[in-house]
Amino acid sequence: MHTPIPDYLHEVLENTRDDGEVATYIPELARANPDLLASALCMSDGKIYAAGDIHERFTIQSISKPFVYALALQERGFETVLDKIGVEPSGESFNSASLDPRTQRPENPMVNIGAIATHALVRPEASRDERFEAVRAGLSAFAGRELDVDEAVYASEMGTAFRNMSLAYLVRSVDGFTQDPADIVEGYTRQCSILVDVRDLAVMAMTLANAGINPITQERVVDEHVAQQVLSVMTTCGMYDAAGDWMTQVGIPAKSGVAGGIIGALPGQVGAAVFSPRLDPVGNSVRGVQAFERFSGDMGMHLLKSPPLSRDVIRHANRRVSGQGEFHVIELQGPLRFSSAERVMRELEQIPNDRKTIALDLARVSSVDDVSRRMLMEGLRRLILEGHAVYLVDPRSSIPNRDLGDGTFPADAASLETLGLALTEGS
Amino acid sequence: MHTPIPDYLHEVLENTRDDGEVATYIPELARANPDLLASALCMSDGKIYAAGDIHERFTIQSISKPFVYALALQERGFETVLDKIGVEPSGESFNSASLDPRTQRPENPMVNIGAIATHALVRPEASRDERFEAVRAGLSAFAGRELDVDEAVYASEMGTAFRNMSLAYLVRSVDGFTQDPADIVEGYTRQCSILVDVRDLAVMAMTLANAGINPITQERVVDEHVAQQVLSVMTTCGMYDAAGDWMTQVGIPAKSGVAGGIIGALPGQVGAAVFSPRLDPVGNSVRGVQAFERFSGDMGMHLLKSPPLSRDVIRHANRRVSGQGEFHVIELQGPLRFSSAERVMRELEQIPNDRKTIALDLARVSSVDDVSRRMLMEGLRRLILEGHAVYLVDPRSSIPNRDLGDGTFPADAASLETLGLALTEGS
Amino acid sequence: MHTPIPDYLHEVLENTRDDGEVATYIPELARANPDLLASALCMSDGKIYAAGDIHERFTIQSISKPFVYALALQERGFETVLDKIGVEPSGESFNSASLDPRTQRPENPMVNIGAIATHALVRPEASRDERFEAVRAGLSAFAGRELDVDEAVYASEMGTAFRNMSLAYLVRSVDGFTQDPADIVEGYTRQCSILVDVRDLAVMAMTLANAGINPITQERVVDEHVAQQVLSVMTTCGMYDAAGDWMTQVGIPAKSGVAGGIIGALPGQVGAAVFSPRLDPVGNSVRGVQAFERFSGDMGMHLLKSPPLSRDVIRHANRRVSGQGEFHVIELQGPLRFSSAERVMRELEQIPNDRKTIALDLARVSSVDDVSRRMLMEGLRRLILEGHAVYLVDPRSSIPNRDLGDGTFPADAASLETLGLALTEGS
Amino acid sequence: MHTPIPDYLHEVLENTRDDGEVATYIPELARANPDLLASALCMSDGKIYAAGDIHERFTIQSISKPFVYALALQERGFETVLDKIGVEPSGESFNSASLDPRTQRPENPMVNIGAIATHALVRPEASRDERFEAVRAGLSAFAGRELDVDEAVYASEMGTAFRNMSLAYLVRSVDGFTQDPADIVEGYTRQCSILVDVRDLAVMAMTLANAGINPITQERVVDEHVAQQVLSVMTTCGMYDAAGDWMTQVGIPAKSGVAGGIIGALPGQVGAAVFSPRLDPVGNSVRGVQAFERFSGDMGMHLLKSPPLSRDVIRHANRRVSGQGEFHVIELQGPLRFSSAERVMRELEQIPNDRKTIALDLARVSSVDDVSRRMLMEGLRRLILEGHAVYLVDPRSSIPNRDLGDGTFPADAASLETLGLALTEGS
């Protein structure tokens, strides 16, 4: 059998229609073949699906912005970065010469003025070339391979970088950074000229969606809360001045670049990338937008889509007797998060007081998040305080640290079978 | 044992600090006791936790906006509603007299001018009172009980409704509606004067988070795609002019009201509400915002939070022999969605061609969304086309309709035990 | 001989080109004959020149704004009016729903929202009809005849007055007035529907240019400082969003109306009016603007045009002897204002100390403004203090009150001839 | 006697109150003595009155803007300059990074971004230093003496010229100029660092008010229509974001600078300057603004002030008989401009047809502008065509060229005495 996903990707690409124009304000970009088209998906274990002109490399342009923002947050910390750059959608075009009128900061790191300020935050004391090398190395870590610069595009962009120079001096004038603005613009323009293909972009997006860990190299590139912050800002500011349209119709944190790339990242699930050079009037790839509308609809990837009905987290809850005595057995299943852990709390609440020994079976639990782990431990602690004996059956160590917070621990059991409490399958 | 959730709610409320002012522009609201404080959480099965002044009723005010937007979308359809009201954050204050300069429509349904236009979309041919009754009945369906109007607040607001009158005439001047603007403002003001308590609001929020089905009455109030649209618009436009701050710091679709209420809705998980009359300068409840920051952080409810690592969806995949022959057995576990179904596709791809008979076991699968169901069926169809015999072990009917799309069906099996293929637990 | 001015007016009208569109948003105005064309000039003594369709009456529309502003200033005083309505150009379109963000007042009385607020300032305690009657009577005083309302246009405008209703409620919401907004809009719309012809408008403009005195009836309609304030506001705010274009290219305080009228007023010189219904995109009469560009260029009426070189204010200054003794005689000529009076002061300064008796001859002075009168009197006072005898020769009473401020008076002389000091003409 | 004007100037200065702050964003300016205070008036014949710290020199700063705009208009022509820089008030602060959204040009030459673009228009092909020298020489011609640069202020400003660099690059990015932005900012900053005192500024202002001719050197620095354009732009854009306040309260075309200078120019009358370093929040000298309010009120210098009533331009008009026959004699007096010439036309119209010989006496006319000269000649031409004999009595050559436009000429007469038609004085 062959997995149907490549067929799907091909079908999506074939069904996009194209009527935009390639970017022309950077002469070198105007020479791009407008009919190029490629897409890739990267899964959380690093598996990549790709279709179309997948070996075509192009400059990353604005898609570099969220990743350098991530590097800045990681290196300098939230306080320093948020002190210099806001997180609000600007309602202005991507190259607007405007600061937040109240704070005199760039409004967000996804518009050019904010991205230039972000570049300056990386290795602030270093030379221009050292700073760029830190950025290039950081983006390479996101991609999982060493990335290079397209020197022809870099030279072409620098030849018309007047507006970016204006933005850099504007930020400099409000002490958004203290380096030489020309150095920052040169570094930022090199950053935009880094060459990638759709697979690189899909891996980079998946690294954000994977809490900061590159799914291929398994390197932790940035911390989880950094990845969350970047995805949050992409959600409201990533697709320029149509945040509401994108949120209602696609609902995936995303970022587009003027060379024709778009990335999207759905936490825990997938990193996606499309490349097609023709742009719509606001500067997003025409076919890229269409492909993401398909991804959102077909793959159920909208952030606000209701998840399907889950089975009850309580698989069984009943009295069982074995050679080891009488137990109140509770078998859990599926993912544990706040809402399912809350259901478990209610189940614990209803255990009759005379059921002195309790076995809680996590063998079928597929995942445990931090809040549900804490809730579970608190529930067990309360049961023990009330005089119950508690066995935790956790053969796959869903809960690594079993300290209940007050130095007590539940009893351990390898499995319900060990305790002689297993039911036959399906019962 | 008592579930720790009520303790948590109490602790959150106690730890909010209060330094805002109650709304004064509506004289009746200025009389509110500023020290009132309450919160409620509603789970997807209708369980409600509540703490504080939970019997206190207050006017719903702007929190009515997303629900009436939902009613309008449900009754009139997306095309009609989107033709009249945009979905972009406005960057203006909630009562701004501004239309989208390009489209001459209200920018979104969460600012007053858009909410007034939304009210007019409900039952457009009906009388003022019939329209209001439709709105009141719709909001009651969201709440699961019959809601009433606070006539004193209504009268007080109408006495100073000059700005809303201005907004209504502005919309009327661009043919945003064709009814009498005074009728629309009266209806809208009655809508804002509907009385709720925090439990009502939590149920209403959970109805949106529950794909449109009231978790208590089980009534489908609006369609799933309507609920998704409303939550999307709340995400970018719900908290007035700080969309980016709210998204980065809280990350829960939300809406606040000038009487001091805030609701939040996390799809599939929880509807939350807080009530505290003191407001910050942009008009959000001071303690309400603090409580939601706690909810987001403590309960892991941020939309962009990476989910915890799941166990591999493939629990076992190996050759087993029983009295019924030789099987290639694949046991799945946990939730199936695009990313885990994709993993399953890869597993199916690797089945050796000589393994003629395949058993796919869904007994431990906790949920199956639409895309993963389609992917699974497509994978099975391809296996059968290649000459494999396929058994689907689905004791809990995770996949109700097993038609593979071309009229073929996989074979059915009650359980691996039935086929004699079960392993002992833990192996 | 026939004066060439009518020929000039005809020539100007014939040489305007027309390519705009009549206003259509008021249905009744859309029925106007677009080819109508008329112009009139009114001089300070009431003489009127007119050409074209001079008997055609049309609704005054926005041209009423400066005159009702004048009535409000006259009736309520500067402080009250300036407290409610600003004087800054708005940079917004004439019907924008915007208030000054800092002061929450309408930005000026020439945009609709400011004109509506202005209407409400007239006779604030009166009924709607009494207020309108005060406005109609005031405009009639400006025109010098009783003006009537075009009831068909009034009814047509009221049928689509939604935006003006919106503006009125917006002003009401910030307490810009306290009357019923519907009453104010009805009164304001009647005000806009008052019928005038180009001769009426020229007289009205000349009344402003004539320091508030109607040049025909000689009635003082408003005070001089009111007229100056209105002309000042017309200068920066009269021609909508092109204040700079109008100031550089025309340089005449002006106001246009949507029915096709434009007025201009040059202090002390002329009131001008043109009527032609086709409008340019910002709402000004196409041929009206062209005619005013001609007026400005041909008639030297630009406010910032340098006046021609004047003859020296000192016609003669020398020693003369008559039977009455030895005199230092200074004959002045032309207009006296600050700059020429300053020159006189210098002349007085140079009188040799031994010239004990001085004769100052004002017989050839054409005008004396307030500052030059004060300077002259101060100069004479100082001469007397120094011991000079001073004769003032002022046969036409250019200086009615000769009190030098300290109770002293210069000597009086009917003429230089009386003193035997006249030179022969031309010497 | 001593002229009272110096006393007046002293009194004005003494009665200004001071509560602002000196500019601090340029470190060198922050060292200014905040208590310095000086003022000067320059008359059209070059006479200067000055009071206060009149020998104190300070940097011209933004007051250079109108003069360099004049130089650019003179050198490059209106079309080129207007194609690059608009004339509309911007409503933004003086250093705003904004272009006209419609035209992508700086909105006017009085805000920094427009002044930088203006500097680049002077000698566009020259080197940075040659361009600056042309500017310095041009400003020196306005001042009537060679002006120098304060190198310390220049160096200080260049050290913090980040915002101006941003503005220059922004203009460069829209091809507002093609030179190196750093060169332009350096030249512009040197321009702002030129040293002047209040007398220099008064002379410079009077040169604009004097139709472009320096009142002291009598050099024509710019053409009359250039001076008119500059004064027009100063009227709407000179005092930053309070065009309406300044026009209503002062009504004098003006420009202020951050070092504390303000100039005002009233066409044909006076150039005024005040210097006092403390600034109000929008950047205008606190005492400078107060002094100009006094000048406007006390000296009757408001542009929209109605001129005083003039004597009738017709001094006498009657039949007189001398040895040379029967004449219809018309004696004119005072200034001739459109409005008075129009009155003359009416007088000519009423000459009885049987009065064959006409004498028009201009001996008492104080000035004749271009339009009135043309009207007069046309009137005489028509009289001659109708068969009248016409004598022009113009002893002071008010009308140098007497060609009536069709090759005919009126007869000449030295004076009414020559013709035996003089009346006795006062009759």
Give a verbal description of the structure.
The structure is a homotetramer of 427-residue chains. The first copy, chain A, is α/β, with parallel strands linked by helices and 427 residues long. Chain A has 2 domains: 295 residues, Beta-lactamase, CATH 3.40.710; 106 residues, 2-Layer Sandwich (Transcription Regulator spoIIAA), CATH 3.30.750.24. The first copy, chain A, is 40% helix and 17% strand. Chain A contains 16 helices and 12 strands. In chain A, the strands form 3 sheets. In chain A, strands 2-1-7-6-5 form a 5-stranded antiparallel β-sheet. Chain A has a 5-stranded mixed β-sheet with strand order 8-9-10-11-12. In chain A, helix 3 crosses helix 4, helix 3 crosses helix 6 and helix 8 crosses helix 9. The model of chain A has no long low-confidence stretch (mean pLDDT 91). Chains A, B, C, D: It catalyses: L-glutamine + H2O = L-glutamate + NH4(+). Chains A, B, C, D: This is Glutaminase. Chains A, B, C, D: Pfam families: Glutaminase, STAS. Chains A, B, C, D: GO terms for molecular function: glutaminase activity. Chains A, B, C, D: One of its GO terms (biological process) is L-glutamine catabolic process.
